[in-house]
Design a protein that fits this description.
The chain is mainly α. It folds into two domains: 10-28 and 142-217, Helix-hairpin-Helix base-excision DNA repair enzymes (C-terminal) (Endonuclease Iii, domain 2, Orthogonal Bundle), CATH 1.10.1670.10; 36-137, Hypothetical protein, domain 2 (Endonuclease III, domain 1). It has twelve helices and no strands. The chain has helices spanning 10-23, 36-45, 51-64, 68-71, 76-82, 89-107, 115-118, 126-137, 146-155, 163-173, 179-192, 211-217. Helix 2 runs antiparallel to helix 8 (126-137) and helix 9 crosses helix 11. The termini are close together.
Length: 218
Protein backbone atom coordinates (compact mmCIF):
# COMPACT_ATOMS: atom_id res chain seq x y z
CA UNK A 1 0.00 0.00 0.00
CA UNK A 2 2.89 2.39 0.76
CA UNK A 3 4.09 2.23 -2.86
CA UNK A 4 0.93 3.57 -4.44
CA UNK A 5 1.63 5.63 -7.53
CA UNK A 6 0.95 9.31 -6.78
CA UNK A 7 1.27 11.01 -10.16
CA UNK A 8 0.97 9.90 -13.76
CA UNK A 9 3.89 9.65 -16.14
CA UNK A 10 4.40 12.55 -18.56
CA UNK A 11 3.08 10.52 -21.52
CA UNK A 12 0.02 9.48 -19.47
CA UNK A 13 -0.66 13.13 -18.64
CA UNK A 14 -0.50 13.97 -22.35
CA UNK A 15 -3.04 11.20 -22.98
CA UNK A 16 -5.38 12.55 -20.29
CA UNK A 17 -5.18 16.07 -21.72
CA UNK A 18 -5.89 14.77 -25.23
CA UNK A 19 -9.08 13.07 -23.98
CA UNK A 20 -10.14 16.19 -22.06
CA UNK A 21 -9.55 18.32 -25.16
CA UNK A 22 -11.85 16.02 -27.15
CA UNK A 23 -14.48 16.19 -24.37
CA UNK A 24 -14.38 19.99 -24.04
CA UNK A 25 -13.18 21.33 -27.42
CA UNK A 26 -14.54 24.85 -26.91
CA UNK A 27 -13.64 25.19 -23.24
CA UNK A 28 -13.46 28.76 -21.98
CA UNK A 29 -14.41 30.76 -18.92
CA UNK A 30 -18.09 30.39 -18.07
CA UNK A 31 -18.13 33.88 -16.55
CA UNK A 32 -19.72 36.42 -18.89
CA UNK A 33 -17.80 39.71 -19.19
CA UNK A 34 -17.17 42.53 -21.65
CA UNK A 35 -13.89 43.88 -20.32
CA UNK A 36 -10.94 42.95 -18.08
CA UNK A 37 -12.59 45.00 -15.33
CA UNK A 38 -15.85 43.04 -15.49
CA UNK A 39 -13.89 39.77 -15.47
CA UNK A 40 -11.94 40.91 -12.41
CA UNK A 41 -15.10 41.83 -10.48
CA UNK A 42 -16.94 38.66 -11.50
CA UNK A 43 -13.98 36.49 -10.50
CA UNK A 44 -13.84 38.14 -7.06
CA UNK A 45 -17.56 37.43 -6.69
CA UNK A 46 -17.18 33.82 -7.88
CA UNK A 47 -15.27 32.86 -4.71
CA UNK A 48 -17.58 30.48 -2.79
CA UNK A 49 -20.22 31.05 -5.47
CA UNK A 50 -21.10 29.56 -8.86
CA UNK A 51 -20.31 31.25 -12.17
CA UNK A 52 -23.96 30.82 -13.10
CA UNK A 53 -25.14 32.82 -10.09
CA UNK A 54 -22.53 35.54 -10.68
CA UNK A 55 -23.63 35.85 -14.32
CA UNK A 56 -27.29 36.13 -13.29
CA UNK A 57 -26.55 38.86 -10.75
CA UNK A 58 -24.00 40.85 -12.73
CA UNK A 59 -25.75 40.84 -16.13
CA UNK A 60 -28.03 43.55 -14.71
CA UNK A 61 -25.42 45.31 -12.59
CA UNK A 62 -23.00 45.78 -15.51
CA UNK A 63 -25.69 47.55 -17.51
CA UNK A 64 -25.45 50.44 -15.04
CA UNK A 65 -22.00 49.98 -13.51
CA UNK A 66 -19.19 48.84 -15.82
CA UNK A 67 -16.14 50.87 -14.77
CA UNK A 68 -14.29 51.45 -11.48
CA UNK A 69 -15.69 55.00 -11.41
CA UNK A 70 -19.24 53.67 -11.77
CA UNK A 71 -18.77 51.32 -8.83
CA UNK A 72 -17.32 54.08 -6.67
CA UNK A 73 -20.66 55.89 -6.94
CA UNK A 74 -22.06 53.07 -4.77
CA UNK A 75 -21.82 52.78 -1.02
CA UNK A 76 -20.70 49.47 0.52
CA UNK A 77 -24.29 48.91 1.63
CA UNK A 78 -25.79 49.56 -1.81
CA UNK A 79 -23.26 47.35 -3.58
CA UNK A 80 -23.79 44.71 -0.89
CA UNK A 81 -27.50 44.61 -1.68
CA UNK A 82 -26.80 44.21 -5.40
CA UNK A 83 -24.42 41.27 -4.90
CA UNK A 84 -26.03 39.75 -1.80
CA UNK A 85 -26.97 36.43 -3.41
CA UNK A 86 -23.32 35.79 -4.35
CA UNK A 87 -22.49 35.15 -0.69
CA UNK A 88 -20.05 36.88 1.70
CA UNK A 89 -21.44 40.09 0.26
CA UNK A 90 -20.18 42.45 3.00
CA UNK A 91 -16.54 41.42 2.58
CA UNK A 92 -16.82 41.25 -1.21
CA UNK A 93 -18.46 44.67 -1.36
CA UNK A 94 -15.69 46.21 0.76
CA UNK A 95 -12.94 44.54 -1.30
CA UNK A 96 -14.47 45.49 -4.65
CA UNK A 97 -14.78 49.16 -3.73
CA UNK A 98 -11.23 49.25 -2.31
CA UNK A 99 -10.00 47.59 -5.50
CA UNK A 100 -11.87 50.13 -7.65
CA UNK A 101 -10.29 53.00 -5.74
CA UNK A 102 -6.79 51.56 -6.28
CA UNK A 103 -7.51 51.01 -9.98
CA UNK A 104 -8.56 54.66 -10.36
CA UNK A 105 -5.78 56.18 -8.24
CA UNK A 106 -2.86 53.95 -9.17
CA UNK A 107 -3.62 52.37 -12.55
CA UNK A 108 -5.54 55.02 -14.47
CA UNK A 109 -8.76 52.99 -14.10
CA UNK A 110 -7.19 50.09 -16.03
CA UNK A 111 -6.84 46.53 -14.75
CA UNK A 112 -3.11 45.70 -14.46
CA UNK A 113 -1.90 42.78 -16.54
CA UNK A 114 0.66 41.26 -14.17
CA UNK A 115 -0.03 38.69 -11.47
CA UNK A 116 2.04 40.68 -8.97
CA UNK A 117 0.07 43.91 -9.43
CA UNK A 118 -3.26 42.09 -9.46
CA UNK A 119 -2.46 40.36 -6.17
CA UNK A 120 -1.96 43.76 -4.54
CA UNK A 121 -5.68 44.41 -5.04
CA UNK A 122 -8.04 43.61 -2.12
CA UNK A 123 -9.86 40.32 -2.59
CA UNK A 124 -7.49 39.13 -5.33
CA UNK A 125 -5.46 36.00 -4.64
CA UNK A 126 -3.28 33.95 -6.99
CA UNK A 127 -6.22 32.05 -8.48
CA UNK A 128 -8.14 35.23 -9.36
CA UNK A 129 -4.98 36.86 -10.75
CA UNK A 130 -4.32 33.80 -12.91
CA UNK A 131 -7.89 33.83 -14.24
CA UNK A 132 -7.60 37.50 -15.21
CA UNK A 133 -4.17 37.36 -16.90
CA UNK A 134 -5.15 34.17 -18.71
CA UNK A 135 -8.62 35.13 -19.95
CA UNK A 136 -8.38 38.91 -20.26
CA UNK A 137 -4.76 39.24 -21.41
CA UNK A 138 -4.02 35.92 -23.12
CA UNK A 139 -1.11 34.97 -20.86
CA UNK A 140 -0.22 31.36 -20.03
CA UNK A 141 -1.46 30.60 -16.51
CA UNK A 142 -3.12 27.81 -14.53
CA UNK A 143 -5.74 28.97 -12.05
CA UNK A 144 -6.22 26.33 -9.36
CA UNK A 145 -9.73 26.58 -7.96
CA UNK A 146 -11.48 23.85 -5.96
CA UNK A 147 -12.38 21.88 -9.11
CA UNK A 148 -8.90 22.01 -10.63
CA UNK A 149 -7.34 21.12 -7.26
CA UNK A 150 -9.65 18.15 -6.73
CA UNK A 151 -9.52 16.71 -10.24
CA UNK A 152 -5.76 17.16 -10.70
CA UNK A 153 -4.96 15.36 -7.47
CA UNK A 154 -7.56 12.65 -8.04
CA UNK A 155 -6.47 11.75 -11.55
CA UNK A 156 -2.75 12.04 -10.87
CA UNK A 157 -1.88 15.20 -12.79
CA UNK A 158 -0.51 16.42 -9.46
CA UNK A 159 0.00 15.12 -5.95
CA UNK A 160 -0.17 17.92 -3.42
CA UNK A 161 -2.09 18.76 -0.28
CA UNK A 162 -2.37 22.46 -1.14
CA UNK A 163 -3.24 24.80 -4.00
CA UNK A 164 0.26 26.26 -4.35
CA UNK A 165 1.90 22.87 -4.69
CA UNK A 166 -0.75 21.74 -7.15
CA UNK A 167 -0.18 24.81 -9.32
CA UNK A 168 3.60 24.27 -9.32
CA UNK A 169 3.25 20.62 -10.28
CA UNK A 170 0.72 21.33 -13.04
CA UNK A 171 3.08 23.96 -14.46
CA UNK A 172 5.83 21.33 -14.56
CA UNK A 173 3.66 18.51 -15.88
CA UNK A 174 1.79 20.41 -18.63
CA UNK A 175 3.34 22.21 -21.62
CA UNK A 176 3.24 25.95 -20.98
CA UNK A 177 1.31 26.73 -24.18
CA UNK A 178 -1.51 24.51 -22.86
CA UNK A 179 -1.73 25.93 -19.33
CA UNK A 180 -4.70 28.23 -19.87
CA UNK A 181 -6.72 25.80 -21.97
CA UNK A 182 -5.92 22.81 -19.78
CA UNK A 183 -7.18 24.80 -16.79
CA UNK A 184 -10.60 25.04 -18.47
CA UNK A 185 -10.61 21.37 -19.49
CA UNK A 186 -9.85 20.22 -15.95
CA UNK A 187 -12.30 22.69 -14.39
CA UNK A 188 -15.17 21.65 -16.66
CA UNK A 189 -14.44 17.98 -16.00
CA UNK A 190 -14.71 18.73 -12.27
CA UNK A 191 -18.04 20.49 -12.71
CA UNK A 192 -19.61 17.93 -15.01
CA UNK A 193 -18.10 14.52 -14.26
CA UNK A 194 -15.45 14.37 -11.52
CA UNK A 195 -17.71 15.95 -8.91
CA UNK A 196 -16.74 16.49 -5.29
CA UNK A 197 -19.06 14.10 -3.49
CA UNK A 198 -20.08 11.65 -6.18
CA UNK A 199 -17.60 11.42 -9.03
CA UNK A 200 -19.33 9.88 -12.05
CA UNK A 201 -16.61 7.31 -12.71
CA UNK A 202 -18.94 5.09 -14.75
CA UNK A 203 -19.31 7.93 -17.29
CA UNK A 204 -15.69 9.08 -17.24
CA UNK A 205 -13.39 8.30 -20.19
CA UNK A 206 -10.30 8.65 -17.99
CA UNK A 207 -10.75 5.49 -15.89
CA UNK A 208 -7.98 3.60 -17.74
CA UNK A 209 -5.49 6.11 -16.37
CA UNK A 210 -7.10 7.74 -13.30
CA UNK A 211 -5.27 6.88 -10.08
CA UNK A 212 -8.37 7.50 -7.96
CA UNK A 213 -10.36 4.97 -9.97
CA UNK A 214 -7.53 2.42 -9.92
CA UNK A 215 -7.31 2.74 -6.14
CA UNK A 216 -11.06 2.10 -5.88
CA UNK A 217 -10.49 -1.25 -7.59
CA UNK A 218 -7.72 -2.34 -5.19
Amino acid sequence: MGNKKKTLLKKEIKGVLKILEELYPNAESELIYNSPFELLISTILAAQCTDKRVNQVMSEVYKKYSTPEDFLELSEEKLGLLIKSCGFYRMKSKNILRTCRILVEKHGSKVPNTIEELMELPGVGKKTANVVVSNAFGQDAIAVDTHVFRVSNRIGLASSKDVEGTEEQLMKNIDKKLWSTAHHWILLHGRRVCKARKPMCEECPLTDTCLYYKNLLL
